[in-house]
Prior knowledge:
- The structure holds 2 protein chains of 2 kinds.
- By secondary structure, chain A is an all-alpha fold.
- Chain A has one domain: ABC transporter involved in vitamin B12 uptake, BtuC.
- Chain A contains 14 helices and 2 strands.
- A two-stranded antiparallel sheet of chain A has the order 1-2.
- Chain A starts with a strand and ends in a 10-residue tail after the last strand.
- Chain B contains 14 helices and 2 strands; from the N terminus they run ααααβαβααααααααα.
- Chain B has helices at 6-33, 41-59, 62-86, 91-110, 135-140, 144-162, 164-174, 176-181, 186-212, 224-234, 239-261, 270-274, 276-289, 292-298; strands at 124-125, 141-142.
- In chain B, helix 2 (41-59) crosses helix 10 and helix 11 (239-261) runs antiparallel to helix 13 (276-289).
- Chain B is globular.
- Chain B starts with 5 loop residues before the first helix and ends in a 13-residue tail after the last helix.
- In chain B, 53% of the residues are buried.
- The mean pLDDT of chain B is 90.
- At the A-B interface, strand 1, helix 6, helix 11 and helix 13 of A face helix 3, helix 4, helix 10, helix 12 and helix 13 of B.
Amino acid sequence: xxxxxxxxxxxxxxxxxxxxxxxxxxxxxxxxxxxxxxxxxxxxxxxxxxxxxxxxxxxxxxxxxxxxxxxxxxxxxxxxxxxxxxxxxxxxxxxxxxxxxxxxxxxxxxxxxxxxxxxxxxxxxxxxxxxxxxxxxxxxxxxxxxxxxxxxxxxxxxxxxxxxxxxxxxxxxxxxxxxxxxxxxxxxxxxxxxxxxxxxxxxxxxxxxxxxxxxxxxxxxxxxxxxxxxxxxxxxxxxxxxxxxxxxxxxxxxxxxxxxxxxxxxxxxxxxxxxxxxxxxxxxxxxxxxxxxxxxxxxxxxxxxxxxxxxxxxxxxxxxxxxxxxxxxxxxxxxxxxxxxxxxxxxxxxxxxxxxxxx
Amino acid sequence: xxxxxxxxxxxxxxxxxxxxxxxxxxxxxxxxxxxxxxxxxxxxxxxxxxxxxxxxxxxxxxxxxxxxxxxxxxxxxxxxxxxxxxxxxxxxxxxxxxxxxxxxxxxxxxxxxxxxxxxxxxxxxxxxxxxxxxxxxxxxxxxxxxxxxxxxxxxxxxxxxxxxxxxxxxxxxxxxxxxxxxxxxxxxxxxxxxxxxxxxxxxxxxxxxxxxxxxxxxxxxxxxxxxxxxxxxxxxxxxxxxxxxxxxxxxxxxxxxxxxxxxxxxxxxxxxxxxxxxxxxxxxxxxxxxxxxxxxxxxxxxxxxxxxxxx
Lengths: 359, 311
């Protein structure tokens, strides 16, 4: 007989924290199944995908490098998601942030001022904010759905960056490749650990997590946002401005995504290309959910998602599988999380053999 | 091939560009009418596109490709349906998950097919009518799926507004509690509506990869799934407006091709022209959402809300 779901009298706090772990475990098991289904040795596939990226210090630094944009974007998105503001277009805000950061670097080409990098960070944040504010303005002024508007802006941003690197910003000495000039040293984020690619953007991400924690857990506007998400009627009754909630939610995501984009062009890439985005804006949505919209959870979820990215690269190199297998695992992780979350509010009851007073 | 006048060529191209949007948006419309908001359309369409392409390539039959696209769309929608209807997961988050998963899965499966080309599928010419001036070749000498999209439109209109089953479906979307209390299986009906919608979105994907381009490129769906979702809002959940809106978008999509192909030395970058459909979507959303009541009165009342019958 099939079990049925029975509502818990109270949502289970234990399950709230156990369900991401359950989802991770299921994804790992799912990995074995997928590798076996693809005709690979599952144990070998598992080792290459999930373990080999972390075999040395360089690998760990690469993990933190990949996790950096995910942390930044996800903590920004979490601010909005907590208030049911669905900014799904972080990918676009990330791209515009990268464009803005690159614009500052190219405009001040040759400058050796130590203020250049801070200016690029601010530029990236403003770029992301500007892009997100389109969705916020249309939502608050015209009630246009922020999911669809912010998503459309992703495609527009992608076309925008493509135009820039094929056209006005193309490196004249770049053999006609669609990319800008390489940035000069003063526009490149300093490396934190010699011999790795891990750069100062990681410190920005940690700062953002801390700031996000203080804002969401310890500040009054953060409290208002949470009320707006969990009890919209109560928020209205208390006189919390719904418009401000939308603006705060979208701009927090936009600013963080913009900084993440700047960190990518000023970090591992060192220039702006069409492929500035590695799907980080969408992966960060998964990070935000798996991290329970909580900065501490987001820290660990970013590491996990970064591992899935690195695993995909390893699988391409050593297992002859397309690196997009990462995205399959990332999607699976979110499916498992959403499924496991049912047990926060419900529990399984096996039907008893004897029934009273029914039928 | 016979040379057409500019007007006829524009009509032909507009109808073809609008067809996947019609099929996908009508499918999503039926799903939403039952109260389920499936934001996974982009991912479903991508999966339908690669499944259809692979099936057409291996079987040599475009029709089989179309069927496979629909079946694959229904299959991945089953994941969404199980999460949201059985496990009562958040519909917005689950739909997004399906979009991310579907786009990733299609890229993964599609890698070996990137250099494969399919033979162009010839049109289905309706004798006599196709000889009418201007509109004849555009309307009566089209891909078979274009006629299917019109039949689907007629079927959806009939089903929703003339059939008893459609009435029940709409009742489930407006007030699942009432529908349940008079004995209708709300969850089962929502499952069927979600799978039907998924099948249609998958079919639309297969149309893109098997009939329209016909090749597979990662990211080829290029937001059409999201545009189909926007179309349903734009149409205020009415099938006729879906049809008209889809052709409007089809027109915007091909306008850029004609401008670029016309040889006119315009100082407009091609990327700007390519972004027009996305701007159009935003503008259309703004225009239709401006009046809050238009959305409130027309959207299914329980749209996006989970429902759990008291067992």
